[in-house]
Structures are given as structure tokens and as C-alpha cells.
Amino acid sequence: MTNKCIVLLCCALAVVPAFGAQRVAMRPRPSVDSADQELIREIVDLERQAKEASLRRDAEFSQRTLADDYVAITPLGQVTTKQETIGARRSGQLRYEAMNITDMVVRVYGDTAVVTARADVKGHQLGEDFSGPYRYTRVWVRRSGHWQTVSYQATVTE
Fold first, then answer.
1. How far apart are CA 18 and CA 135, in angstroms?
2. Domain range for residue 152?
């Protein structure tokens, strides 16, 4: 897989992960109160919306949910911004055929939520296959009553 494909893949995955048809484990900390449980449900729903937007190649979801200071780190260690992520989505050269998210854990810390999960994806970017397993971490921050992604990092796994 070329460096450019991995960069674009990370741009795409930055707004992709959500849960697929299979089970997603929502394992909050043992001491999660009912308010945090509601916030966890909100984040899980945003993750679901992100998956749907990726399968439809909907760049507007990225525009709405990525913070202006958003930064992603690709599996090769490259840094991408909100505008680069949106551009990769709008190009139409990225195609997801399938996506399955498992092992999702959502932790809430006030107005910040940290999501970790495994994403098994099948797709092509610029004609190159980027299918395979990834682990990712995404950080959501609630600003002015709206959740935005401020950081994302993906790692290729086996």
C-alpha cells in the first residue's frame, strides 16, 4: 500500500468508524453514572452516523463534526487536518465496500469522550486495496453543546 493511500485511508477512517451489523461492546467504567451513560449513548450514535456517512461518501458529516483544530495521525505517522480529511471524502476516489467495528469502548471525562475500537474495513483508494484490520482512538469534545472530533489515530493491526 502506498504512503498516499494510507494517508487518504486515515483521512477516511477519521470519520468512518462506527459499528457494523455485528455486536459492539459498550464497556463504560464501572462507576459510570446515568448522566455519563446518556453521553456514551450520544457518542455511540455519532459513531454510527460516521459509518453511514462514510459508506455514502458524505463529506458534510465531516464538515459538521470535525473541529477546526482537528488533527489525525495515520498508520504511517503522517498528520492530516480537517480540510485534508474533507477533501479526501469529496474526491470520490475512496470507496468502502464493508466496515465492521468491534471492541468499541467509550469513556467519558466531563465534556470529553475517548473512543477506542477495532475497524475491519474493505475498500479501495485510488485503485489500491486498503482492506484490513485497524485499531483506532478518537477524541470527541463537547463545545457549545455540540460534539466534535478533535483527534484521531489509526494503527494497522494483524
1. 12
2. 3-156
If one counts the domains in the chain, the total is 1
Quick: pLDDT tens for 121-149: 988 877 888 899 999 999 999 999 999 99
Q: pTM for the complete prediction?
A: 0.80
Q: 81 with 3: CB under 8 angstroms?
A: no
Q: Are 136 and 117 in contact, with CB atoms under 8 Å apart?
A: yes
Domain with 15 in it: what CATH number? 3.10.450.50
Residue 122 CB contacts under 8 Å (≥ 6 apart), including other chains = 96, 97, 98, 99, 131
Q: How buried is residue 118: exposed, middle or buried, by Cβ count under 10 Å (0-12/13-18/19+)?
A: middle
Helix orientation angle between 82-90 and 3-13, rounded to the nearest 10 degrees? 100
Cα gap 82→63, rounded to integer Å: 8
Whole-angstrom Cα distance, residue 147 to residue 158? 31
Question: Cα-Cα-Cα-Cα dihedral of 136, 53, 64, 15, to 10°?
Answer: 10
- Reading the block at residue 84, the C-alpha cell is 485534508
